[in-house]
Amino acid sequence: MSFAVDSRGGVWVLDQVNERVVRYEDGKPRTSLPLDRPRAQDIAVAEDGSVAVLDRFGGEDVVLLRPDGTVAGSLPLAGDGIEDIGLVTGLFVDGSNVYAEREHGPLILLGDTSGVPAPSRDEIAGRPSRDGKLFLKAGITDATAGRTYVVANERPSEDHRFTREIRFDAYVWSIVLLDTDVSGTIYFAVELEDGGEHAVVLTCLDPTTGVPQGTAALPANTMPEESFRDFVVLDEGGVLAALRTENGVQYSYYECE
Question: Could you give the dihedral angle defined by the CA atoms of residues 85, 240, 15 and 173, in that order, rounded to the nearest 10 degrees?
């Protein structure tokens, strides 16, 4: 359903069907943590190795797992800033802070990775960059015309740094990735539809100006199975993409050229 990559290069896969979280290293499963959450949808891994799992329609919370698989606690989704948990579109961990994203917009502070709820559910203006300098947002201006945009605001002041329009020569089906690596390079990807064919285009942006630095073409998932997250930016740069096939899920690495 989703996956994340930790600072040591381990790939954490949320296996919803088998109710577990599995950590892969060098292509082999190394750790399997049972998860009593049959409707869990998203996952994020903190710097200390703890794992946060989003469960919108079961427990209606975020469950926090220690690296050994024991439960550290949970954070309720409903509350200030989130009236409808169905509008939560992602789970993010910044340091020890755990955030839920509302409608691909602001992030709501739920608490910390030890399971302690936040005394005040503060909002931040967008997804935090990994270099600690920006809040990022993106959107579709005109899907038919292939018009999209990325906005960067300074952190913590939220002062506007840039708005960059990015155009494509096909219908924009959806935005599938917005994140950075630890150097701050911005990774933005969209799924396009052209003549009934789907493809993903990745664009790398300069974090100071938003000027595109390169692109890459990635395959789009066309299998009927649902997923919550198919693309993850690695700390050192590049993107790991999950492609669902008849034989399972294949994870491949891509860079902007």
Answer: 50
